[in-house]
């Protein structure tokens, strides 16, 4: 009879198995060799785990599938099967609130996406949707894993579908910390916010080599798809930073201004800034002369708690401001014309920027405050041929479709179609106020007089004197500060210094607002 050999103690003893597990976990946590980590740091980039540590509260991260390995064969893949498969997934907390996260590990396969890699991301996205908690993606990957062929492409399809299902349900934030090229770039494009770090992060569909081969144009990676390009020119990026630490700190801050999901409201925080605080400085900040510019950001800082706000798309479409702030501790979204740029007129990009912001606030139960000082839509052949009608209608549609509390304040000019589009009472603003410096009209007095009194001016002995008199007459008859209020188009003309307490009281009244849209599968907004 042959003697049966006992397996090694480690194979049957529980303590030995635990030791084996710890060794596996340690190997997964350590990742590839130190040389790969040094190379990552030499590029000015943190590792995936270092980034997660900065994003989440200390000690809160719970990792999923750290021992996952790919099962692909061919092209040498069967000989290289590292744990995690190049993506770290899991959940933790940000200021005590649950957040789900995935982070590409560029040290493993260059962060390229394969079947197992994609499956891990799919799972964490499904968990975020089911739990009703925000999802943050830390992107630093080389796109689809070429060795796995079409399987990798199918993995991206699953990510895109889940982004779409999660849209308007949970906040989705993409942080670009390295390359994000080809089809991979559509993942951030489907999310609510995109953060980028200068020099190390790039996004593009076709890289510089392809651009040069097809068009002959020579361009660098940053010149084609760097943070500043997307923050100022394309509008793809909402926030751009010089380093990863500052970037991830602002991701944490943004999460405090958002609810966990569309069934909740953003958390209200205590504030030491008095709700009834007057601001006489507003009387000096905004000139009564409608032709003189001023910085609308200074007005916003006077109104919100402690002057603190987080501006979205600060460097793109700068003729309009979209920002998140707090009033008496409650989060609000503010849309405001910026007279320092294009006199605050609406153009194609400003309309798109504001429309997306209004939709975001409406999706996540954030009340809207609109500050108007708008002379109209920007005139020009380029604007008309570029589809200003179509793009301007996006903003109109977004406001008309919004059911959150909506309060508008007319500071100075509010002319023509731009006045209507910027959340006027006629398209559903709940309460509208105006300062005594307001001018609400079809157009400016000069243009109106030139059209209405063209014949009288032409026939006058002194056309310039006649024109000046008729402009004054039109302004006194149809553009005085109380004309709209007399007709019920403005609820009240208020002292500018009282704007903060008026907004706080009005929003408190509207906090229990309930509005239903007509039953439908979905609308068909202008494109």
Structure, described:
This is Carboxyl transferase. Keywords: Transferase. It comes from Streptomyces lincolnensis. GO terms for molecular function: propionyl-CoA carboxylase activity; transferase activity. By secondary structure, the protein is an alpha/beta fold. It folds into 3 domains: 244 residues, 2-enoyl-CoA Hydratase, Chain A, domain 1, CATH 3.90.226; 189 residues, 2-enoyl-CoA Hydratase, Chain A, domain 1; 37 residues, no CATH class. Helices cover 40% and strands 17% of the residues. The strands form 3 sheets. Strands 10, 11, 12, 13, 14, 15, 16 and 17 form an 8-stranded mixed beta sheet that branches. Strands 1-2-3-4-5-7-9 form a 7-stranded mixed beta sheet, with helices on both faces. It has a two-stranded parallel ribbon with strand order 6-8. Strand 12, helix 14 and strand 13 form a beta-alpha-beta unit.
In short:
40% of the residues lie in helices and 17% in strands. The protein is of the alpha/beta class and 527 residues long.
Give the helix/strand layout.
Blueprint: H1 9-12, H2 14-30, H3 34-42, H4 48-55, E1 62-64, E2 87-94, E3 97-104, H5 115-131, E4 135-139, H6 150-166, E5 172-176, E6 179-181, H7 186-189, E7 193-197, E8 202-204, H8 208-215, H9 221-225, H10 227-234, E9 239-241, H11 244-256, H12 282-285, H13 296-303, E10 309-312, E11 320-327, E12 330-337, H14 348-363, E13 368-374, H15 381-385, H16 388-401, E14 406-415, H17 416-421, E15 431-434, E16 439-441, H18 445-452, H19 454-459, H20 463-478, H21 483-486, E17 492-493, H22 499-510
Helix pairs in contact: 5-6, 14-16, 18-20
Protein name: Carboxyl transferase
InterPro entries: AccD/PCCB, AcCoA_carboxyl_beta, ClpP/crotonase-like_dom_sf, COA_CT_C, COA_CT_N
Keywords: Transferase
């Amino acid at each position: 009879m042959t003697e049966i050999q006992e397996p090694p103690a480690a194979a049957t003893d529980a303590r030995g198995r635990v030791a084996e597990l710890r060794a596996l976990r340690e190997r997964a946590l350590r990742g590839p060799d130190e040389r790969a980590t040094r190379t990552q740091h030499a590029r000015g980039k943190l590792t995936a785990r270092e980034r997660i540590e900065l994003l989440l509260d200390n000690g809160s991260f719970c990792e999923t599938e750290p021992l996952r390995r790919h099962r692909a064969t061919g092209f040498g893949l069967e000989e290289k099967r590292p744990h995690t498969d190049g993506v770290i997934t899991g959940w933790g907390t940000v200021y005590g609130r649950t957040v789900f996260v995935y982070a590409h590990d560029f040290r493993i396969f260059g962060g390229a996406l394969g079947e197992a890699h994609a499956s891990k991301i799919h799972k964490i996205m499904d968990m975020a949707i089911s739990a009703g908690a925000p999802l943050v993606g830390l992107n630093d990957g080389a796109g689809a894993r070429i060795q796995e062929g079409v399987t990798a492409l199918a993995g991206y399809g699953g990510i895109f579908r889940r982004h779409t299902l999660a849209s308007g349900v949970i906040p989705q934030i993409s942080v670009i910390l390295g390359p994000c090229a080809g089809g991979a770039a559509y993942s951030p494009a489907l999310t609510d916010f995109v953060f980028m770090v200068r020099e190390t992060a790039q996004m593009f569909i076709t890289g510089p080599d392809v651009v040069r081969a097809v068009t002959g144009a020579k361009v660098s990676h940053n010149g084609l798809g760097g943070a500043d390009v997307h923050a100022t020119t394309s509008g793809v990026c909402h926030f751009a930073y010089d380093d990863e630490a500052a970037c991830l700190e602002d991701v944490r801050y943004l999460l405090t201004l958002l609810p966990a999901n569309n069934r909740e409201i953003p958390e209200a925080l205590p504030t030491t800034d008095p709700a009834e605080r007057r601001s006489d400085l507003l009387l000096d900040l905004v000139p009564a002369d409608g032709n003189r510019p001023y910085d609308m950001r200074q007005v916003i800082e006077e109104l919100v708690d402690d002057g603190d706000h987080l501006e979205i798309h600060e460097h793109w479409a700068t003729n309009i401001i979209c920002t998140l702030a707090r009033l008496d501790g409650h989060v609000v979204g503010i849309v405001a014309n910026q007279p320092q740029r294009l006199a605050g007129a609406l153009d194609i990009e400003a309309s798109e920027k504001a429309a997306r912001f209004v939709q975001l606030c409406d999706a996540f139960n954030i009340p809207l405050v609109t500050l108007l000082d708008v002379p109209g839509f920007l005139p020009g052949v380029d604007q008309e041929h570029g589809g200003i009608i179509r793009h301007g209608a996006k903003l109109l549609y977004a406001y008309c479709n919004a059911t959150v509390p909506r309060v508008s304040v007319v500071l100075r000019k509010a002319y023509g179609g731009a006045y209507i589009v910027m959340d006027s009472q006629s398209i559903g603003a709940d309460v509208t106020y105006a300062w005594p410096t307001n001018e609400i009209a079809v157009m400016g007095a000069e243009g109106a007089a030139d059209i209405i009194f063209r014949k009288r001016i032409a026939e006058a002995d002194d056309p310039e004197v006649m024109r000046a008199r008729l402009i004054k007459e039109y302004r006194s008859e149809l553009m005085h500060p109380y004309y709209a209020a007399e007709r019920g188009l403005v609820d009240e003309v208020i002292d500018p210094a009282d704007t903060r307490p008026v907004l706080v009281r009005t929003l408190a009244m509207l906090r229990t607002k309930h509005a239903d849209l007509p039953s439908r599968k979905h609308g068909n907004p202008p494109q």
